User: Fold this.
Amino acid sequence: MAIPGSGLAKGLAVTLRTMTKKTVTAQYPDVQPELPPRTRGVIGLFEENCTVCMLCARECPDWCIYIDSHKETVPAAVPGGRERSRNVLDRFAIDFSLCMYCGICIEVCPFDALFWSPEFEYAETDIHELTHERDKLREWMWTVPEPPALDPRAEEPKEIAAARKAAEKAATAAAAEAAAAEAAAAAEAEARPAEGEQQ
Ligand code: SF4
Ligand code: SF4
Assistant:
């Protein structure tokens, strides 16, 4: 049988414990929250990487990515070569009033043109303002955090390995070229007095 008043004592104990605990309420907006590095705040567009492949727009479950483009003819790189055509971006916009922050567009982009930024302070009083056009999406790129450092025991990414090999190859070729030029200059210098003696 419960002792009379024990419930009240228990309740008071809980109140006292809570009163003496450190407060965890974030005083936003006076204090900015400490967000985890992979926070999904807003999407930034690195336009230079976008090839207008349309994958992101097709895979977006909310159909909130709007892309317009036109084709341009690129002249042949070498004489007698073939002209090529490429897509040129006219419009890239994301409607954040529809976006559900699933991240599919970022995952599927094969050219690393979309990135998460932790910025979240872009509330608007007019819903139309939540459609961010390419200039705005580009501005968000400045707020994208650096990628975390690789695990020291991780395999070297193949892009970095390829770039390193290409740089090494170029350095070896440049060194060989410099050595050949040096040898040619030395041979020329050696030949010059002999020519002088003949005269
Ligand atoms: S995060 Fe998801 S919903 Fe938002 S634009 Fe990308 S794919 Fe669409
Ligand atoms: S998937 Fe990437 S490259 Fe393709 S249109 Fe979207 S942002 Fe551009």
Remarks:
- The chain is about 35% helix and 15% strand.
- Residues 60-62, 64-65, 94, 99-105 surround iron/sulfur cluster (ligand 1) (CB under 6 Å).
- Residues 153-194 form one domain.
- The chain has two domains: 32-141, 153-194.
